Please model this.
Amino acid sequence: MVRLSSAAHGQGVFAERPYAAGEVILVFTGKELSTAEADRRDVRRHCLDVGSGLQLYVEAPARFLNHSCDPNAGLRDAVTLAAIRAIPAGEEIRFDYSTCVPDASWALDCRCESPLCRGRVVAFPRLDAKTRRRLLDLKIVPAWLRV
Ligand SMILES: [Zn+2]
Model:
């Protein structure tokens, strides 16, 4: 179980109970849209890339998951979020947005304050080789995005 609450930068999703490493936290649900349709409707900021040219218009609370460059959760497949490590109750659940974005033009300034903070979050294919390898080794890059 998770709940929405205020986080460092707007709303976030928080663990309501402890999660063990590897445990599934949530499955993203919502309406599937083509990327063109999501852009036309100006809802990309609420969407998760789930395939090439394919978006999921994500429902709450997952819509409010924030990014971290040193996340405690990651995508096991296109829509399943699992704990990377043990997560105590009350901790904010965050994943690495680079693990779901293919668009070379996409970027986000990050202030996650982790020692691993990249400062600028970019699409998975544009990450440096070391960061790509770290995310792949954590098994949090969905198959469709692996290059
Ligand atoms: Zn960061």
